[in-house]
Amino acid sequence: MIVPRHIAIIMDGNGRWAARRGLSRGSGHQAGAEPVRAVLKAAQKAGVKFLTLYAFSTENWGRPQEEVRGLFELLWQYLESETPELLASGVRLQAIGDTSALPEFARQALASALELTRANQDFPLTLALSYGSRAELTLAARALAEAAAAGRLDPAEITPDRLAAELWTAGLPDPDLLIRTGGDMRLSNFLLWQCAYTEFYFTPTLWPDFGAEEFQAALAAYAARERRYGLAEA
Ligand code: FPP
User: Fold this and answer.
1) b/e string for 67-79 if b means 16 or more Cβ within 10 A?
2) CB neighbours (10 Å) of residue 209?
């Protein structure tokens, strides 16, 4: 079976999962931490090489303050409890997004987890935190424009590769497979540039109900796809 090298996931549906049980949205997010563990394990076992999770978007800042706070407390908890396991299983934690915007306690926990797992080579797990593709592309355009204005860059040298090197994802291969749970079929400002040729797997399953079994189903769906990258049929 052909296994995607890089999988990106939009973990959606925590709020609805909680509402159906009469619980707070925060409880839904808490329940969403378990599939993160399960999917990480399943991905490593399947031979996936990179995993990228959309944990907090630039748009998520507009949610009620209490929910935002809860999400970062959850991130803090996850990092506190999981870092030893990440370290032991060869995971190198990475982050993309404007992490300077995170509350101080979350920023510190993140910095320390990044530092602790830095030497791990086996498996980059990238958390998108305060991430938005449009912000990422805007910053890249600005950096290139500044370099050109300062005479350090000839505009003729601005190629797709040169632009990609300015993105937060510089160094990460483009995702081969994007999974979105929760039933919506859109990218929601996630990896717009990087997903130019990515295969999509959309499922109505709410993120807290997503597990190793459905992850396998997504892998099987991917293996059945024919990727042509705009070329003619083989
Ligand atoms: C979308 O569900 C999910 C989020 C905004 C947060 C994702 C965070 C987690 C899965 C928590 C665990 C992650 C880590 C890295 C510890 P939603 O609230 O938009 O759901 P809804 O569409 O049903 O309202």
Assistant:
1) eeebbbbbbbebb
2) 16
- CA–CA separation, 200 and 179 (whole Å): 6
pLDDT tops 70 at residue 225: yes
Active site residue 174: no
Question: Terminus-to-terminus CA distance in the chain, angstroms?
Answer: 19
Ligand 1 mutation target, pool 14, 93, 130, most atoms within 8 A of CB? 14
Known catalytic membership, residue 14: no
| DSSP 8-state secondary structure symbol assigned to residue 197 | T
Q: How far apart are CA 41 and CA 224, in angstroms?
A: 23
| Structure-token pair, residue 80 | 């506190």
pLDDT, tens digit, 9 for 90 and up, residues 108-125: 999 999 999 999 988 999
Residue 93 backbone dihedrals phi, psi, to 5 degrees: -80, 135
**Stretch 151-161: mean pLDDT:** 97
* Cα–Cα separations (whole angstroms), residue 182 to 40, 48, 110, 203: 19, 23, 27, 6
In angstroms, the CA 64 to CA 71 distance is 11
Looking up tokens 């990087």 gives 194
pTM of the predicted structure, to 2 decimals: 0.96
- What tokens appear for 32 in the block? 């969403």
